[in-house]
Structure formats: structure tokens, C-alpha cells
């Protein structure tokens, strides 16, 4: 019997001083059975960094043809394609041809450094591609089936807190 996804309710209050974006989001997000809590929280962080009314979660791990998150126009064109991890060049090429802007967030420092060194020259040609590394140690401690987070972004740093924990997340822009 196949395992089913876990449904999580997430309440975010975002104050992004860098983009002047201030909003609350009530999200219902499925966690794939093979997805650990750390990776799930990285998806939430990617949402927080790029939050907008158009940004939505996709089928993610359940679909090879979709990113983790995307923002589409009213005519169904893809404005923003967000992937996590270390996708191969073929997937990145496909994303860059389909979307106005593509962002890849890496999150395992050792694996990400090796991947970036191998891919850096090949990915230089994509003008609509951004790559950043998320350092989010301890973020899995925020994981709960019902999460309420206060999120502040200022000077490129992300501050997350719930009733118990305060976590600082940093971004390193690679491309």
C-alpha cells in the first residue's frame, strides 16, 4: 500500500523590508512521503523569499514536468519557476526556455558546492537564471502539522520565529 502525503496548514505573516512586501498567507501544503521535514521547510522558505499573490506550490516531487513553486500570468505563461536542490542541466534548460525567470535554491552545503563547481560554466549562458544557497540550520525544528510563523526579511537575511524558536536563515547568491 502506498503512503499518502501529509497535509500541513501554514500561517505566514511576512514583512519583507527588502522588497517592501507585507502580507499574510494561509497555506495548505502537502508533504510527499519521501520528503523529510528539512526539505519541506526549505520549500516554505523559498515561498517566503518570493511571496506574492501569484506564487503557488505545484505537485513538486510528484511531477517531473513542474517546479516546486511557480507564478503564472493570467494567460498561463510562467513568470517564475522555482526549483530546489541540484537539478541537471537538461531540466534547467527546459525551465529557462519555459519561464521568464528561474530560481534554483540549493540547501545541502557539501552537495551544493560540488554541484555548483561542475555546473557553473554550463549555466553561465542562461540570462534568466538565478541560483542561491539557503543556509537554514535548525529550521526543521519549526516543523509541525499546523505552523504559524512570523517572517521578516531585511538586508538579505530571513528571520523566522514561532512561539518557541527564532531562526536566522542566510542566502548566498551564486548566480
Which terms would index this structure?
175 residues, alpha/beta, Restriction endonuclease-like alpha-beta roll fold, ten-stranded mixed β-sheet, 22% helix
Unreliable segments of 5+ consecutive residues: none
Q: Mind telling me which CATH architecture this is? A: Roll
CATH superfamily: Restriction endonuclease-like alpha-beta roll domain
CATH top level is Alpha Beta
Number of strands: 10
Tally of helical runs: 3
Main beta sheet: strand number and arrangement? 10 strands, mixed
> Considering DSSP H and I runs of 4 or more, what fraction of the residues is helical?
10-25%
Query: What gross morphology would you assign?
Result: globular
User: DSSP strand (E) fraction?
Assistant: 35-45%
Kindly give the count of domains: 1
Give the strand line-up of the largest sheet.
2-1-8-9-10-7-6-5-4-3
What are the secondary-structure elements, in order, as H or E?
EEHEEEHEHEEEE
Amino acid at each position: 500500500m502506498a503512503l499518502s502525503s501529509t497535509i500541513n496548514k501554514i500561517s505566514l505573516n511576512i514583512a519583507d523590508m527588502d522588497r517592501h512586501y507585507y502580507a499574510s498567507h494561509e497555506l495548505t501544503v502537502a508533504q510527499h512521503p519521501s520528503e523529510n521535514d528539512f526539505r519541506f521547510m526549505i520549500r516554505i522558505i523559498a515561498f517566503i523569499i518570493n511571496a506574492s499573490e501569484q506564487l503557488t506550490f505545484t505537485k513538486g516531487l510528484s511531477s517531473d514536468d513542474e517546479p516546486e513553486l511557480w507564478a503564472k500570468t493570467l494567460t498561463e505563461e510562467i513568470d517564475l519557476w522555482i526549483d530546489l536542490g541540484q537539478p541537471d542541466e537538461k531540466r534547467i534548460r527546459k525551465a529557462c526556455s519555459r519561464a521568464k525567470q528561474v530560481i534554483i535554491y540549493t540547501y545541502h552545503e557539501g552537495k551544493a558546492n560540488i554541484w555548483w563547481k561542475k555546473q557553473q560554466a554550463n549555466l553561465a549562458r542562461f540570462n534568466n537564471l538565478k541560483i542561491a544557497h539557503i543556509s537554514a540550520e535548525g529550521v526543521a525544528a519549526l516543523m509541525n502539522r499546523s505552523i504559524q510563523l512570523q517572517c521578516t526579511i531585511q538586508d538579505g537575511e530571513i528571520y523566522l520565529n514561532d512561539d518557541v524558536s527564532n531562526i536566522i536563515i542566510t542566502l548566498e547568491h551564486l548566480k
